[in-house]
Amino acid sequence: MHQTFDAALEINLLHANQQGADHNREHFDQWGITCFNIMSSPGAGKTVLLEKTLSHLSQELKIAVIEGDMTTELDADRLRLYGVPVIAINTGRSCHLDSKMVAGGIHQLAHQYNPSEFDLVLVENVGNLVCPAEFEVGEHAKIALLSVTEGEDKPLKYPIMFQQADCLLITKIDLAPYLDTDIERIKNNVRQMNPHVTIIPISAKTGEGLNVWFDWVRAQIHQSLVISH
Ligand SMILES: Nc1nc2c(ncn2[C@@H]2O[C@H](COP(=O)(O)OP(=O)(O)O)[C@@H](O)[C@H]2O)c(=O)[nH]1
Ligand SMILES: [Mg+2]
Ligand SMILES: [Zn+2]
Ligand SMILES: [Zn+2]
């Protein structure tokens, strides 16, 4: 969250955002859609993860993507190659997606398609390790990515993201042998502040861990259908 000159202003802002998130969540639940909010610093591997997820799961599940980027549609164009609806949202100067922007995306999805046909909406947030974690968008689960190149101290330095995450993907583990990063220390640092988080180390390059991620996705969809019906 950016420093505000008025604490009341900050509370109002987050309150308004939460109302929008509740609105989005009602849509998702009414349509039987599970929504993930995918967050990390720039370059941790969100878009590559989405590419692998779409290529592996889009036959089995009906997936749509909401792609948040400050200015370009570069990531959205990469994901459109997988033949799924990709709604691009340019946030302009904002460093995170908020619930209103995502509402624009899901209303657009509902306008162009029958939303009840979808199982999963993947939201790729703006690359930023701080602000996205504070703005709920109506998701069922928050997915944080931390690449081994970022160092094992980052969960301690940017705690909110790691406290909020339901699932942490430790990415680019194929690079770990070339670095001093200790994956066990990352896990310990995160578990200290968030004992219930699911932690899955993956490499999109070698494919290691991706099946564990796909199984987690399937289990979440199953669980949110059971809860909403
Ligand atoms: N070695 C390696 N590179 C990866 C992996 N995942 C992503 N990358 C690279 O990291 C860079 C950023 O990936 P991208 O998905 O665009 O990150 P985003 O900014 O979080 O969406 C790209 O050059 C990817 O090829 C991985 O598992 N291993
Ligand atoms: Mg990206
Ligand atoms: Zn609505
Ligand atoms: Zn910010």
UniProtKB/TrEMBL annotation:
Species whose genome carries this gene: Gloeothece verrucosa (strain PCC 7822)
InterPro entries noted in UniProt: CobW/HypB/UreG_nucleotide-bd, Hyd_mat_HypB, P-loop_NTPase
GO molecular function list: GTP binding; GTPase activity; nickel cation binding; zinc ion binding
Biological process per Gene Ontology, one example term: protein maturation
Pfam families with a match to the protein in the record: cobW
Assigned protein family: Belongs to the SIMIBI class G3E GTPase family. HypB/HupM subfamily.
PANTHER family documented for this protein: HYDROGENASE MATURATION FACTOR HYPB, HYDROGENASE PROTEIN ASSEMBLY PROTEIN, NICKEL CHAPERONE
CobW/HypB/UreG nucleotide-binding domain sequence ranges: 37-200
This protein's UniProt keywords: GTP-binding, Hydrolase, Metal-binding, Nickel, Nucleotide-binding, Zinc
Span of the signal peptide: none
Top-level taxonomic group: Bacteria
Name used for this protein in its record: Hydrogenase accessory protein HypB
